[in-house]
Design goal:
The protein is flat and about 40 Å long. It is built from four helices and two strands. It has a two-stranded parallel ribbon. It is mainly alpha-helical.
Length: 106
């Protein structure tokens, strides 16, 4: 896998979820604990479950995307990304979750 391809997986939730789900299935593993920011947990867990994994989330408590440090823009972005995933994203329509604006934290 090229460096550019792995960079895409790091930036896109669905791509990285598909990659680790495939690796887990190959290793005959089915349960995962996802460590990510609190607003991202719901979508990350939904994607993992849709790929047949038993998933839960351990939200981070510190960092730029913690609840204390992120604002309404980030919450709205994650809500929109979740809605996009459960509607058109699941139909195979490719959506990027790369940020258009990186100024989502106060």
């Amino acid at each position: 896998e090229s460096s550019a391809a792995s960079d895409v997986y790091k930036r896109q939730t669905l791509g990285s979820t598909q990659a680790y789900a495939a690796a887990m299935k190959k290793a005959k593993l089915s349960s995962v604990v996802i460590v990510t920011d609190p607003y991202h947990c719901f979508r990350s867990v939904k994607m993992a479950k849709d790929l047949g994994l038993i998933a839960s989330c351990a939200p981070v408590e510190t960092g730029p995307a913690s609840v204390a440090n992120s604002g309404y823009k980030y919450l709205a972005r994650e809500a929109g990304a979740y809605l996009a995933y459960i509607t058109v994203g699941r139909l195979g329509i490719k959506l990027s979750d790369r940020l258009i604006s990186t100024n989502l934290y106060p």
